[in-house]
Amino acid sequence: MAIEIRTYGDSVLRRVADPLRKIDGETKKIAEKMVEAMIRANGVGLAAPQIGVSKRIIVLDLDGQFHILVNPEIIETSSESEEAIEGCLSVPGVDAEVTRKLRAHVRGTTLDEKEVDIEGEGLMARAMQHEIDHLNGILFIDHLGPAKKRSIISEYHRKQREKDE
To answer: Which of 82, 110, 137, 154 is the most exposed place for a label (fewest CB within 10 A)?
Structure first.
């Protein structure tokens, strides 16, 4: 059975995810399900809460490379920011201009328990910030002004109603 990606309104998306104390077979199964769900949805990243698991795991598929990080944290970001169109698998069908830091340095642990540092800019930096936001109960729409956020949420609900008809 395919893993369902949780969508806007699901409370798991608003919880701060729990850190993992150990990486075991269950952690690896979760990561595998996340990769499958991300590929099936044509995404560039996914956080565990998006499949209903409140654990600090993210997966990224950028530049032809998969990155699976457990307990990732942003170590440093650049002072420069950029605005770009951003969407989310948990808020399907809508997107908006979101300002994010241009560069990001993230540290996490791989599934084979090695600590890694990943530095990225542009889309990679944006994706890392976006997925780590998910681990903290933050959605991309939370970076918008109040009027724009209401507009995007209304558009999302309208598209969901149309899809259900």
So the answer is: 154
The residues spanned by each domain of the chain are 11-164
**Are 118 and 69 in contact, with CB atoms under 8 Å apart?**
yes
Per run of 10 residues, the mean pLDDT along the chain (length 165 residues) is 88 98 96 94 96 97 89 97 96 96 98 96 96 98 97 95 84
155 flagged as catalytic: no
- For 157, the 3-state DSSP assignment is helix
Give the predicted TM-score (pTM) of the model: 0.95
Q: Which CATH number fits domain 11-164: 3.40.50.2000, 3.90.45.10, 3.40.50.300, 1.10.3720.10?
A: 3.90.45.10
